[in-house]
Write a structure and sequence with these properties.
By secondary structure, the protein is α/β, with parallel strands linked by helices. About 35% of the residues lie in helices and about 25% in strands. The protein binds 5-O-phosphono-beta-D-ribofuranosylamine (GRF). 5-O-phosphono-beta-D-ribofuranosylamine binds next to helix 1, strand 5 and helix 6.
């Protein structure tokens, strides 16, 4: 299989992107990050990309209010940079249907809880951890999943549990989950890079290394 040429879509600080990038640099993942795209001009992820000489694009939803124009611009950038894989690393906008179709089974999202619990529209960042604590869950975790046309509903690739402590606040839980996120995204990408994933309709099989 072709080497993974990853496009990162991110709206925030970009620590998940940075963790993947560091793992690539350390030889833990055979892949390349070919572009970072953000819908937020001030996203830390764009800054990290620039510091690492990775093409960085801000695509403004204000300037492209029609969803189809916005998606066309993203698609154009993906084509220009020869991306063959996409990761959503804290990307808060719905990704266009055409992109989902073109990159079928080649788009991953990371979610800071164990889906299908605590997912869906509006469930991001501290909202997720607040909801987990309000419910009284004893565990939370991380889900890396394929992206389909809805929020947080694609097939899980890797899920990992993270304990909840009695003393947790949304911030302390978020920090513990984030630590795990930084490992799990690369693990999931490695399954693709090493061609160990078989996706058959509603089932994912992962071969051991
Ligand atoms: C992470 O918690 C991720 O799970 C969620 O958004 C957050 C992004 O953090 N989708 P960062 O921008 O990668 O630091």
């Amino acid at each position: 299989m072709e080497k993974l040429k990853i496009a990162v879509l991110a709206s925030g600080r970009g620590s998940n992107f940075k963790a993947v990038l560091d793992n690539i640099k350390q030889g833990k993942l055979n892949a390349e990050i070919c572009v970072v795209i953000s819908n937020k001009k001030s996203a830390g992820a764009l800054e990290i990309a620039r510091e690492n000489q990775i093409p960085a694009f801000f695509v403004s939803a204000k300037q492209l209010p029609e969803q189809s124009d916005f998606d066309d611009r993203i698609m154009e950038i993906l084509d220009e940079t020869n991306a063959n894989f996409i990761i959503l690393a804290g990307y808060l906008k719905m990704i266009g249907k055409e992109i989902v179709r073109k990159y079928k089974n080649r788009i991953l999202n990371i979610h800071p809880a164990l889906l299908p619990s605590f997912g869906g529209k509006g469930m991001y960042g501290h909202f997720v951890h607040e909801a987990v604590l309000n419910y009284g869950c004893r565990v939370s975790g991380v889900t890396v999943h394929l992206v389909d046309e809805k929020y947080d509903t694609g097939l899980p690739i890797i899920q990992r549990c993270v304990p909840v402590k009695d003393s947790d606040t949304p911030e302390t839980l978020a920090a513990r989950v984030l630590k795990e996120e930084h490992k799990v995204f690369t693990e999931a990408l490695r399954c693709f890079a090493e061609n160990r994933i078989e996706i058959d309709g509603k089932k994912v099989k992962i071969r051991e290394r």
